[in-house]
Amino acid sequence: MKLQQLNYLVAIADNNLSITKAAEKLYTSQPGISKQLRLLESELETKIFERNGKQLAGITELGEEVISRARKVLHEINHIKNITNLINDSDSGRFSIATTQTQAQYVLPKVFSSFHGRYPNLTIDLQQGTSEQILSQLQKQEVDFAIASGNIDLGANIVKIPCFQWDRTVLFPHDHPLGDLKKIQLEDLAKYPIVTYPFMGNAKQSSLTDAFKKENLEPNIVFTARDADVIKTYVRNGFGIGIVASMAFSPQKDRDLLGYSTKDILPRCTTWLAFNKNIFLKKYMKDFINDFAPHISSEQLSHYIHQDYTSSLQLMHEHESDKAEDKPLPMHQMWHI
């Protein structure tokens, strides 16, 4: 078994089972990959891929396990290379983060302002996407860190650190009927079309829709968009009222809209930072975590890294629970704005 063969396996799996695309990505030939694949399957005496003629049609159950372990082997090799390069290359390289538009536009600029000043030779690759895309990139180890929000199960191989909480804000034009109310309730929001963020998977997993259902209400969500500025645009064009992250609304920049905090009627959201458990955390990565979540001590970070998955879930739920008053997460506005 060769490392090259493991690299081919992962490339095929990551390119929709296309040997041609895998060859292009690895700058090698298709026949060469096909030959090494046959040799590997012969050595292992098993089929890693299901075939339809000459085309790969799927991954066998045993093949899934082989590819999963191949990823770990290749990742550990990268760790060894990183360790040997630390002394001469500790303040440079590529630091990749996958996140949402809200975090990228409204939270991270202030964080990167100080961080980039300390690491000017470090190339920061900020990739935006949906929660599903971010999770996929993280699990495939295509990015170093992932930053997103929501109660999402990332799996046993991922370290997930709750960092801060934030409220949602309801947006509507100055002449909207909601502006005449002294106190807005969920039943008031249910009367109007709503423009908000898309849900991960489906609406059943959303704390937003859950809040309405607990009051026997059905939100009329007519339009969803990943970008808060797009949501505001459609609110301005009369599609409905908007519900966005509080940090995405500025009374100065969004003067034509009124913003109403939902802290009393909708549950707070938690933003988390995540990375693969077997990643080698370089000094600049630890410094970034400290800049992004300064309330997390080095001892707490070490605890998150080394605890087992069950303990991780329990600690995460303690942070996200409204009853965890002894160790509340800070609100975003308290330390970023």
From TrEMBL:
<dbReference type="InterPro" id="IPR037423">
    <property type="entry name" value="CysB_PBP2"/>
</dbReference>
<feature type="domain" description="HTH lysR-type">
    <location>
        <begin position="1"/>
        <end position="59"/>
    </location>
</feature>
<dbReference type="InterPro" id="IPR005119">
    <property type="entry name" value="LysR_subst-bd"/>
</dbReference>
<protein>
    <submittedName>
        <fullName>Transcriptional regulator, LysR family</fullName>
    </submittedName>
</protein>
<dbReference type="InterPro" id="IPR036390">
    <property type="entry name" value="WH_DNA-bd_sf"/>
</dbReference>
<dbReference type="GO" id="GO:0019344">
    <property type="term" value="P:cysteine biosynthetic process"/>
</dbReference>
<keyword id="KW-0804">Transcription</keyword>
<keyword id="KW-0805">Transcription regulation</keyword>
<dbReference type="GO" id="GO:0000976">
    <property type="term" value="F:transcription cis-regulatory region binding"/>
</dbReference>
<dbReference type="GO" id="GO:0003700">
    <property type="term" value="F:DNA-binding transcription factor activity"/>
</dbReference>
<dbReference type="Pfam" id="PF00126">
    <property type="entry name" value="HTH_1"/>
</dbReference>
<keyword id="KW-0238">DNA-binding</keyword>
<dbReference type="Pfam" id="PF03466">
    <property type="entry name" value="LysR_substrate"/>
</dbReference>
<dbReference type="InterPro" id="IPR036388">
    <property type="entry name" value="WH-like_DNA-bd_sf"/>
</dbReference>
<dbReference type="InterPro" id="IPR000847">
    <property type="entry name" value="LysR_HTH_N"/>
</dbReference>
<comment type="similarity">
    <text>Belongs to the LysR transcriptional regulatory family.</text>
</comment>
